Amino acid sequence: MTPAEEFQELRPLLFSIAYRILGSVSEAEDAVQETWLRYEGAATRPASTKAFLSAVVTRISIDVLRSARVRREQYVGEWFPEPLLADPYQDPARSTELADSVSMAALLLLERLSPLERAVFVLREVFGFGFPEIASAVRRSEPACRQLAVRARRHMDEGRPRFEADRKERRELAERFFDAFREGDVDGLRDLLASDVAMVADAGGKAPLWGRGVFGDGNVARVLAAMAAPFDRIGGVVQPHEMNGQPGAIFRDRDGRVVNTLTLDIYEGRIQTIRSVLNPDKLGHVGPVADAWAVVREANDARRPTD
């Protein structure tokens, strides 16, 4: 197998490592590309290509995360990870860890960790790397990595998100949710929401804030129902789509351009949190991006009665 073929075979793993460390599709793709350039330019071939490439992409991701943290501190409003339509890396032996670790809630929890803690946690708890490999990747001693892993696991366990184990039940509840949304059915929506449900959005100051800081089943149900009819009247389409391993949807304008994405956190048969990403900078990998301001203006006009 040629170096290029080996790299392509490992690319899904490398992207999945980088995305969990960075919470950004675009930055993860850049980290993977930089990893290839370093691998291609290496004077000798490593004994283990997987270990070498995993270590390189981890180090690059740690460096990128350190600089990204400064930008995130200055971010306008809520910051969410870039939505991931599908995880390219699959491992049946670690399917639960992979699915749990890519959810919006888990990625936001990972934001509480230091870059080193986050990298160690991802490599150890999500991908099952041994401590000798992790120590080499982050350039710390094995005892230091074990301590980092303990601290990271403790932080994660304190706030670990809880989801329904049965994916079929989650999918069916999400289908009922989007049916009720399309119909503008306030009561139907309220029946699916937790009493303390939160609906929050990431617009980054670059899009209108749909659903920012709306709390409680009654308020959220009314806001959602009020959105549905005008969005439908202007040709908007709600496309159910799994997002970050959780039920969700892509909202598109009449021309198929992406307005926003939506993800649902479901626990004990109720929707606990609804997160929407509207920042156009985070949606380019989903498809051509709509002008959300124009969509909202048109939807607001559609609310007004005509003579």
Automatic annotation (TrEMBL):
Interacts transiently with the RNA polymerase catalytic core formed by RpoA, RpoB, RpoC and RpoZ (2 alpha, 1 beta, 1 beta' and 1 omega subunit) to form the RNA polymerase holoenzyme that can initiate transcription. Pfam families: Sigma70_r2, Sigma70_r4_2. Belongs to the sigma-70 factor family. ECF subfamily. The keyword Transcription applies. This is RNA polymerase sigma-70 factor, ECF subfamily. GO terms for biological process: DNA-templated transcription initiation. Residues 105-156 form the RNA polymerase sigma factor 70 region 4 type domain. Residues 7-69 form the RNA polymerase sigma-70 region domain. The keyword Transcription applies. GO terms for molecular function: DNA binding; sigma factor activity. SUPFAM superfamilies: NTF2-like (SSF54427), Sigma2 domain of RNA polymerase sigma factors (SSF88946), Sigma3 and sigma4 domains of RNA polymerase sigma factors (SSF88659). Keywords: Sigma factor, Transcription, Transcription regulation. It comes from Actinacidiphila yanglinensis.
